[in-house]
């Protein structure tokens, strides 16, 4: 089963909730993860079940990063606020770097998130099943 993480900075929380409402039918069959407040707000506005980690600044980004490092996440939607400095910016950069290392598709804005979810809806992520089947170790 595909595993999708949803994260949003404070000023993007309403945007990710609206996104989840709009694409609830697409997201419903998948295992969803989110940082604390984002997950709570999505569950309040939809019928989606979301496994909530800690708030991002309190370690939630790192908890999701642990899934990525183990190649246990298939898609990350992280609506970032590019106009606001984040106190946990190093954690955010580390999470995005891990996604690049593992080849995890990432959306950092709604336009890209919509493209990825439309691909998900069409079944274009079947290649992730192969990744899970043949998890290569990191070469030393």
Helix share of residues? 40-55%
CATH topology: Rossmann fold
Largest β sheet strand count, sense and barrel closure:
5 strands, parallel
Arrangement of strands in the largest sheet: 3-2-1-4-5
Structural class by helix and strand composition: alpha/beta
Poorly predicted residue ranges: none
Fourth CATH level, the homologous superfamily: Methylglyoxal synthase-like domain
Report how far apart the termini are. 29 Å
User: What is the name of the CATH architecture?
Assistant: 3-Layer(aba) Sandwich
CATH class placement: Alpha Beta
Order of helices and strands: EHHEHEHEHEHH
Average predicted confidence as pLDDT: 90
**Tell me, what's the shape?**
globular
Provide the number of structural domains. 1
Count up the helices: 7
- The proportion of residues in beta strands is 5-15%
| Strand elements, count | 5
User: What Rg is obtained from the alpha carbons, in whole angstroms?
Assistant: 14 Å
GO cellular component, one term: cytosol
Protein name: Methylglyoxal synthase
Binding site for substrate: 9, 13, 35-38, 55-56, 88
Catalytic activity: dihydroxyacetone phosphate = methylglyoxal + phosphate
Can you describe what's shown?
The protein is built from 7 helices and 5 strands, in the order βααβαβαβαβαα. With 140 residues, the chain is an alpha/beta fold. The chain has a single domain, classed as 3-Layer(aba) Sandwich (Rossmann fold), CATH 3.40.50.1380. A 5-stranded parallel β-sheet has the order 3-2-1-4-5, sandwiched between helices. Helix 5 links the parallel strand 4 and strand 5. Helix 4 runs parallel beside helix 5. The model has no long low-confidence stretch (mean pLDDT 90).
């Amino acid at each position: 089963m595909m595993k999708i993480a949803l994260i949003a900075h404070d000023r993007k929380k309403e945007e990710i909730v609206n996104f989840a409402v709009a694409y609830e039918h697409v997201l419903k069959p998948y295992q969803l993860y989110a940082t604390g407040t984002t997950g709570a707000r999505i569950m309040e506005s939809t019928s989606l079940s979301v496994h909530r980690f800690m708030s991002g600044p309190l370690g939630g980004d790192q908890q999701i990063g642990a899934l990525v490092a183990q190649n246990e996440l298939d898609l990350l939607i992280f609506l970032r606020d590019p106009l606001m400095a984040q106190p946990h910016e190093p954690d955010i950069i580390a999470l995005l770097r891990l996604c690049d290392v593992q080849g995890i598709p990432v959306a950092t804005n709604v336009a890209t998130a919509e493209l990825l979810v439309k691909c998900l809806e069409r079944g274009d992520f079947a290649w992730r099943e192969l990744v899970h089947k043949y998890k290569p170790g990191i070469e030393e």
